[in-house]
Design brief:
- The complex is a heterotrimer of chains A (348), B (258) and C (281).
- Chain B is built from 11 helices and no strands.
- With 258 residues, chain B is mainly α.
- Chain B has a single domain (57-256), classed as MetI-like fold (Orthogonal Bundle).
- In chain C, helix 3 (56-87) packs across helix 9 (187-215) and helix 7 (146-170) crosses helix 10.
- Chain C starts with 9 loop residues before the first helix and ends in a 6-residue tail after the last helix.
- Classes of the chains: A alpha+beta (348), B mainly alpha (258), C mainly alpha (281).
- At the B-C interface, helix 1, helix 3, helix 4, helix 5 and helix 6 of B face helix 1, helix 3, helix 4, helix 5 and helix 6 of C.
């Protein structure tokens, strides 16, 4: 349980700059996420924090102590790998006990702690099995137990759910959340899946091309993205170009000849901006902006409805399935958009 | 590579190549006794060209290995084709026999073969040596070709069948060309293994008829022989060329895979 | 050619293998036990009597097996770090390195033995270099001693072992090593608890492949070994080439074969606990 500080870390591989002056801070007990696509540098940053790579510049601090030059064996960090990395020739019990054995704890202590860890992830019945006898979800739980049994200051998770089936992913996500609540370990999740990040982490650091694009509470990353790239990366968007106009003393922008009140640093008269509206904020109603239904995609409980405006522009709406069942392709209907749902961002 | 890895690989490389490097260097050394000081000379190479016994032995080795490679590749490929279609115990048994042939010292195999030949009445002879070498080289051909046949995409063959080719046709038109690089590769392997096989030839060839390994052996037993250095260098060069050829064939099979 | 009719393809192969391998060995065993008619060339029941009359042949067997074991052990010590290192470098470099490892061995063993001979000779290159340390005389050499035989056999064992260890090491995911490190394992601990158990199965197979020929070798000891370096293999080849008593030679070779196989079997058993369950990688 500790504070993690990554200060101004840069890293290059040959001529390529992978990380550029990246800084992260995780307070004691918090669960943060490092969100980025492949090639963004997130895995490299994780390996630097873990100690497998040395940064070209910058420092890593745990509870204020500089561990940048400490080898991984001596860092008090637990790691859960993407492919679990369970030792194939050891039973689950022996896998979990491994770290404790390396520390030369007494047999009694080891037995106690391993039992507790198995209980934590609810794997007691599988203790004597070998890793290849377990399902993906069970293997992941074992990997978590193995890392946590050492009660590390920091827990690193490297895309822990990406190797699992969709269905199991959800269950394991809940498990991880529960385990975190119970142990209160400081944790950093590295992932490309924004749903994972949004659900598990309290704060998200969005990273792209080695730079931090935005570092904020989860709801803000989604609700108030810092720029166009983040907006498009985390969730779907409707985007419109517009110019800010002054009307009755306030700044407005227009979509399909309707004016919307906006605010924020970009709300300056004459400023050309990009408007972003999330599909779920576009509600289908009996009056408002006229649209025609172009395509409906049912996704189970929800449906994506693709609409065209009078001027030909496209609009995407996300509605609950019952709503979508009331309309059909080719039908003319209306949509309502609330002013507060319109976010203005700089043209990148 | 980390520093430690670099050191390890360099040291082992040094150990592996030390005898060869020494021989190559010495082949250019004037000294008759393989001692220093070093003075450059090509006289051992010209001596080599004049050594009838070495040249005759070399040509014998080449002809023998060529014949053995031809036979072993044909018999071995047929055997491999059969083996990949067998799932019963017979398959395991044949694997076992092949493995035993590779694992049992050639000393023991050589004696066993000699006894059979004596029993039949042939005794030592060129024919015996050919058959014996084929037997010993066979597992290498079979395993190499088998591996390739197993790795062949079944889909390609089934595609051929769905387009109307009969079993025989798809075998000739699809399977054989795809496996050809491995077949040729195993032929080269057979050639090399037979060329360098001292033991079997030692026991099965008639006394006085010497292939290259036997010739080298008889000369070396009496001590240092500088012409052998020159010969070794030449053989090494030949081997490098053959290996590069094998590489090309390996690259060729990749072409087929795409 | 349907699958069912392919069996005739196997005939030539089986014919050769059976007549060259299975048949003669079987006959040797049968005649030496007195179970089959006395064929002039094959071992007789009294061959065994002759073998066990004195301890000479048993001692030679022991020496040959011991030589095989020691040379295999030396080769393992050298091959292991090399095989492991090769598995950790990029794929392209791997191919080149593996090719470089095999290359010397495509050249005839006789030439390699000769190379060793030249290398180790008194006043030759190696001794000239070593004598610079003033610890030994340039004239002396380990040539014509049993040691040079052992070293030569170890040298011959290297490519097989390096290849085999490389193959086992390759299959050990780097993530396993990383995770062991993150759990606090030092370099030694990583080796004993992770690398060793997981490479053991392959290593044992490779060792058997190397130990057996080494124990049955004779050319190396003949050229490099000197009077004290005689192995059972030398005596056997003598029976065939020089003395012309193939029956006795065959009996001795049976003894060699059984001794070697028994040793391999025993070692396999002893080392089993070290790697149980490692085949599940």
């Amino acid at each position: 349980m500790a504070r993690l500080e990554v200060c101004n870390v840069s890293f290059s591989y040959g001529d390529t700059r992978i990380l550029n002056d990246v800084s992260i801070s995780i307070p004691d007990g918090d669960f943060h996420a490092l969100l980025g696509s492949s090639g963004s540098g997130k895995t490299t940053l994780l390996r630097i924090i873990a100690g497998f790579l040395k940064p070209d510049s910058g420092t890593i601090l745990i509870n204020g102590e500089d561990i940048t030059n400490v080898p991984p064996e001596h860092r008090d960090i637990g790691i859960v790998f993407q492919q679990y990395a369970l030792f194939p020739h050891l039973t689950i019990w022996e896998n979990i006990a491994f770290g404790l054995r390396m520390r030369k704890l007494s047999k009694i202590e080891i037995t106690q702690k391993v039992a507790k860890a198995l209980e934590l992830v609810r794997l007691e019945p599988s203790a004597q099995k070998l890793p290849n006898e377990l399902s993906g979800g069970q293997k992941q739980r074992a990997a978590v137990a193995r890392a946590l049994v050492l009660e590390p200051s920091l827990l690193l998770l490297d895309e822990p759910l990406s190797a699992l089936d969709r269905k199991i992913r959800g269950e394991l996500r809940d498990e991880l959340a529960r385990v975190h609540r119970q142990t209160d370990t400081t944790a950093l999740l590295v992932t490309h899946d924004q749903e994972e990040a949004l659900v598990l982490a309290s704060e998200i650091v969005v990273i792209e091309n080695g730079l931090v694009r935005q570092s904020d509470r989860a709801e803000n990353i989604y609700g108030s993205p810092a720029d166009l790239w983040v907006a498009g990366f985390v969730g779907r968007t409707n985007q419109f170009r517009s110019v800010c106009k002054l009307k009755n003393g306030e700044i407005v922008v227009s979509i399909a000849n309707r004016d919307f009140l906006v605010s924020g640093p970009q709300a300056i008269e004459g400023n050309e901006v990009m408007l972003v509206v999330r599909p779920e904020e576009v509600s289908i109603s009996s009056d408002g902006i006229p649209v025609r239904v172009k395509e409906i995609r049912f996704m189970g409980a929800t449906a994506q409805v693709f609409l065209t405006l009078i001027d030909g522009c496209e609009l995407e709406s996300l509605v609950l399935a019952p709503v979508a069942r009331k309309i059909a392709v080719g039908v003319e209907t209306f949509v309502k958009i609330d002013s507060s749902s319109v976010k203005i961002l700089a043209l990148t | 590579m980390t520093k430690a890895q670099r050191i390890v690989v360099s040291s082992v490389g040094l150990i592996l190549y030390a005898p060869l490097i020494v021989v190559i260097i010495m082949s250019f050394n004037r000294s008759l006794y393989g001692t220093f000081p070093f003075s450059f000379s090509l006289k051992w190479y010209s001596h080599l060209l004049k050594s009838d016994d070495l040249l005759i032995a070399s040509s014998r080795s080449i002809w023998l290995s060529f014949g053995v490679a031809l036979l072993a590749t044909t018999i071995g490929t047929m055997f491999a084709v059969w083996r990949v279609s067998v799932k019963s115990v017979t398959g395991l048994a044949s694997d076992g026999i092949l493995l035993a042939t590779v694992a049992i010292p050639w000393l023991i195999l050589g004696i066993a073969m000699l006894q059979i030949f004596n029993l039949i009445g042939i005794g030592r002879g060129i024919v015996s040596a050919v058959i014996g070498n084929v037997a010993v080289v066979l597992p290498y051909v079979v395993f190499v070709v088998m591996a390739r046949l197993r790795g062949l995409d079944e889909n390609l063959i089934e595609a051929g069948r769905s387009l109307g080719a009969t079993q025989l046709k798809s075998f000739c038109r699809i399977t054989v060309p795809l496996a050809m690089p491995s077949i040729l590769g195993s032929a080269l392997l057979a050639f090399v293994v037979c060329f360098n096989n001292f033991t079997i030839q030692y026991f099965l060839l008639p006394l006085g008829v010497r292939t290259l390994p036997l010739e080298i052996y008889s000369q070396v037993r009496t001590g240092y022989s500088p012409a052998i250095n020159a010969l070794a260098t030449v053989v090494l060069l030949g081997t490098v060329l053959i290996s590069l050829l094998l590489e090309r064939l390996g690259a060729g099979s990749k072409r087929f895979r795409d | 050619m349907t699958t069912k009719r392919r069996w005739f393809l196997s005939l030539p192969g089986f014919a050769i293998l059976t007549s060259m391998l299975v048949l003669p060995l079987l006959l040797q065993v049968l005649t030496s036990l007195g179970l089959a008619k006395n064929l002039s060339e094959f071992p007789r029941a009294d061959s065994w009597r002759r073998i066990f009359e004195s301890t000479l042949y048993l001692r030679l067997l022991y020496k040959s097996i011991w030589t095989g074991l020691v040379s295999t052990a030396i080769a393992i010590v050298i091959a292991w770090p090399a095989g492991w290192a090769i598995s950790r470098v990029p794929k392209g470099t791997q191919k080149v390195l593996l090719g470089a490892v095999i290359l010397p061995y495509l050249v005839s063993t006789i030439l390699l033995i000769y190379g060793f001979f030249v290398l180790l000779a008194g006043n030759g290159p190696l001794m000239s270099v070593i004598s610079l340390t003033n610890l030994v005389n340039a004239d002396s050499s380990i040539l014509y001693t049993h040691t040079s035989t052992v070293l030569m056999l170890a040298y011959e064992a290297l490519p097989v072992l390096i290849l085999v260890i490389y193959a086992s090491s390759e299959s050990i995911d780097q993530a396993l090593i990383d995770s062991a490190r993150s759990l606090g394992a030092s370099r030694m601990q990583r080796f004993f608890h992770i690398i060793l158990p997981l490479t053991m199965p392959g290593l044992l197979g490779g060792s058997a492949l190397v130990f057996v020929p080494a124990a049955g070798s004779f050319v190396e000891s003949q050229i490099l070994g000197g009077p004290n370096g005689i192995l059972l293999g030398n005596v056997i080849s003598d029976q065939i080439r020089r003395i012309n008593d193939p029956a006795f030679g065959a009996a001795l070779s049976l003894m060699l074969l059984s001794g070697v196989l028994t040793t391999a079997f025993i070692f396999g058993r002893i080392l089993k606990p070290l790697y149980r369950r490692s085949n599940v990688v």
